[in-house]
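Dear U.,

For the methods section draft, I wanted the exact inputs and outputs in one place so we can describe them consistently. I've listed the two proteins in the order they'll appear in the manuscript figures. Please don't edit the token lines directly; just add comments below if something needs changing.

First protein:
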Amino acid sequence: MAYKITDACISCGACQPECPTEAISEGDSQYVIDVSLCTDCGACANVCPTEACQPE
């Protein structure tokens, strides 16, 4: 199960460098996770200040 970034994202960018598979990128209005690259490690969720990274 991949993670997703919810509307709680404030585009702080804390999650992007933590992703070991580089599945997170900056989208138009917030960061997004490429589910085909996400390995469900939870590294993004561990650093997100708004808890926007959630299991899908």
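Second protein (the one for the lower panel):
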Amino acid sequence: MDSLNPEKVCFIVMKAREFDVKEDTVEEYPGSSDIDDDFRSILSDYPDDPILEELQSFINAMNEDEQAELIALTLLGRGDYLLVEWPEALSDAHNRRSVFSSEYLLGIPLLSDFLEEGLATMGQSCASYEFDHL
């Protein structure tokens, strides 16, 4: 990766994990309070979810090359490409990259796992980043 800082990838991995644990919203007792519900609403998924908005903003603020490398890293981690095929993955990612890169990426189930696997394939890890930020 030439443009994309691995710390940015690790930030996205951590935030994507927070987003992945969200559940569909179910309001069994709409008149109850968070205390009565053991704060279960924290794990509910809402359209204006702040974690989703933070991830979208973060990815959208990246330049085109960073977004393309993030997509290519996801494709690498998903097993679509081998490490020796990185130039092809990057070319494919540049073709997929658009104004909606964040929507494309955040629509991929297991995004955090694919990004971590992509980093591991490149000989990198989020372990020290997570240790410093948890």
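Candidate sentences for the figure legend, describing the second protein: Residues 6-133 form one domain. The two ends are 25 Å apart (CA to CA).

Thanks,
Y.
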